Amino acid sequence: MIKPHGSTHLNPLYVADDAARGQLVQEARELPQLTVSSAAAANAVMLGAGYFNPLTGYMNKADALSVARDMRTADGLFWPIPIVNIVSDPEPIRGAARIALNDPNVDGHPAIAVQDVEGIEEISEDEMTEMVVNIFGTDDEAHPGVATFKGLGRYIVHGPIQVLNFSYFEHDFPDTFRTAQSIRDEFAERGWDKVVAFQTRNPMHRAHEELCKMALDATGADGVLVHMLLGKLKPGDVPARVRDAAIRKMVEHYFPANSVMITGYGFDMMYAGPREAVLHAVFRQNAGCSYLIVGRDHAGVGDFYGAFDAQSIFDEKVPADALEIEIFKADHTAFSKKLGKVVMMSDAPDHTKEDFVILSGTKVREMLGQGIAPPPEFSRPEVAEILMDYYQNKSA
Questions:
Q1: Which of 304, 347, 341 is nearest to 329 (CA)?
Q2: Average per-residue pLDDT in the chain?
């Protein structure tokens, strides 16, 4: 199986030993308290789960700026997006060597991690703008990721962490949330050595289903990891519980047995387009995947990125030796009326737009809200039924 990024073995920061974790939970109650942002809590979950291997905690300002500029930490580790704990008011923890990080997303705000504070550094407005522009390609606050990042504050609290729990993810999604190590372990149990990862924050329609099958066939992989984001999204996106149910129904009816693993990870969507696509590759390598499908407008939002910017970044800005995972590049995929099947549009040069079944997201949402199932060439009926129920109840 493929090696993790940056080390020979996975080093998750979750404290797995019950006794040691219990002592840390007790210690956290006596430490100076800091309720972190949802973004920092999600970073803690990803660090704890091993997805952000080999990082040991939150980056300092030098590393954050270096990663934003050059996709390398100050000591040369390839990394695409700063993993930071940024706060607006550091005074409650000023001078503390060790602090409890409290979870903003769980009732009572229990400690999600304990952090050794190596320093608190202020970010200037120019430095924040530079980071944002490099990460997101824009500083326009109409971009939801930009607005969130710029709203975190201007103080970086850096240092290693020990993770105590996986926030709400393990309780709200007990059948779906998985750590990188548990995914690797199941690959081994299934006898899978080469695996294709499919990233999604949306329900899967026919085009997504066929894309996974195309990638499986083209790479000769043993299976597909459908790996869905379970964290915070922008308004209008389909909630994780609905997406989870729809994907499970599709896999149950339309994939061969033992060809797909349905899992999820605890992270908030950044909508950072190309940079987030590279982050997706890093943590899929940590989860043991040999390939990542990168399609049209991967991790994008609105018109902030070109349709295939998330593919070209791997050719133009990711050094050849930076990652072991390979990218399976996918064109826009749609049902061909001429051929009677889903194809990549680039593989059908004799087609016009009218030869494909193409529906906009807005049109699909309108249909579902009115109780009208999209055509079976676009969405499997079992999936459409789950989505119709969600949209009709939402608008009721």
A1: 347
A2: 92
Q: How confident is the model at residue 356 (pLDDT cuts 50, 70, 90)?
A: confident
Residue 396 has pLDDT above 60, yes or no: no
Catalytic: 53?
A: no
Tell me the backbone φ, ψ of residue 264, rounded to 5 degrees: -145, 165
H-assigned helices in the chain: 18-30, 38-48, 61-70, 125-136, 144-150, 169-172, 180-190, 206-219, 240-254, 274-286, 309-316, 361-369, 381-395
How far apart CA 29 and CA 204 sit, in angstroms, is 43
* pLDDT score, position 239: 84
The active-site residue out of 11, 21, 202, 365 is 202
Q: What are phi and psi of 165, to 5 degrees?
A: -160, 175
Q: Is-catalytic flag, 206? A: no
The secondary element (H helix, E strand) that includes residue 156 is strand 155-163
The percentage of residues in the chain with a pLDDT greater than 70, rounded to a whole number, is 98
Per-residue pLDDT, 361: 67
CB 81, CB 135: distance < 8 Å:
yes
pTM: 0.92
The catalytic position among 21, 72, 190, 201 is: 201
C-alpha 327, offset from chain centre: 16
What DSSP designation does 82 have?
-
Which region among 38-42, 262-266, 343-347 has the lowest average model confidence (pLDDT)? 343-347
For the chain, the 3-state helix, strand and coil shares in percent, each to the nearest 5, are: 40, 20, 45
Other beta carbons less than 10 A from residue 326's beta carbon: 17
Burial of 48 (0-12, 13-18, 19+ CB in 10 A): buried
The β-bridge partners of 326 are: 291
